[in-house]
């Protein structure tokens, strides 16, 4: 295990922000975590980084960046005749996990295709897209407790999943490093989710009358590529803000003056509604707007982009201006989905 010093981080975050970390170490074996613990790395400022697709560095990171590169994809069990349990190393790239499952004929995460990041970040963030969240197929995960070196198993209930939330972003924040994730998927008789977004439109365009999990994944990939910029060419972290969850009364009030505003049910709580943050931002005139080397994407107002050379502070400044506009017009404070450092 090698610890590098004074490391540039622009290639380790999808915003492409140029900044430095005091130290950087790549972990590919679980026993290396004990070495970090004994070296008191976990007792000092540190950051566990997967794909760097959900983070904004505002300045230099004065501590150690730990790259989680724990790998592995395998079937580890079955539940009845139609469900299997797969396990991914937390450092596996998420989209590669989705493609592997589709190649094996395993269904349940095809709607989550092309989401950037790693498998370990999926439950931490409770990633979701096109009508599916990771909690819908989650079985359990293994997590390394930094203070003791013990591996703990967390099942679905103990993860306290919420909208882009989990216990690892709440009461257990910074206490654990996720090492492996297990999902319960279908091995046949797949239950496809086609009723969200443009999936049915894309399938119709492709003349797909009897879609498979592969068809759904391909449609989702097509939609995402159409709407979202590729970080390899235009720095971004995907959706910068969460879709706000508001009281039904507030949603109804806003609909009176904004009848075209998209409103969605929010889980099982009939008193809450989910609004589309991208729509709110677009109504405030931000879609396609550029300020220096930072801007709001011209096809998806939920995405803030780095046109090249922007600092983290410049990106954050624009995000705050967007927040202020939405709050002034709609009385809603957008919460960042991206982790601001």
Description:
With 341 residues, the protein is of the alpha+beta class. The chain folds into three domains: 3-68, 2-Layer Sandwich (Uridine Diphospho-n-acetylenolpyruvylglucosamine Reductase, domain 2); 73-226, Uridine Diphospho-n-acetylenolpyruvylglucosamine Reductase, domain 3 (2-Layer Sandwich); 235-340, UDP-N-acetylenolpyruvoylglucosamine reductase, C-terminal domain (Uridine Diphospho-n-acetylenolpyruvylglucosamine Reductase, domain 1, Alpha-Beta Complex). 24% of the residues lie in helices and 28% in strands. It has helices at 31-38, 94-104, 121-125, 199-205, 213-227, 248-257, 277-283, 312-330; strands at residues 3-8, 20-27, 46-49, 55-56, 61-68, 73-79, 83-89, 128-129, 132-133, 138-145, 151-155, 176-186, 235-239, 245-247, 263-265, 272-275, 290-291, 294-296, 303-306, 339-340. Strands 6-7-12-10-11 form a five-stranded antiparallel beta sheet. Strands 1-2-5-3 form a four-stranded mixed beta sheet, with no helix packed on it. A hairpin with a 2-residue loop joins strand 8 (128-129) and strand 9. The protein starts with a strand and ends with a strand.
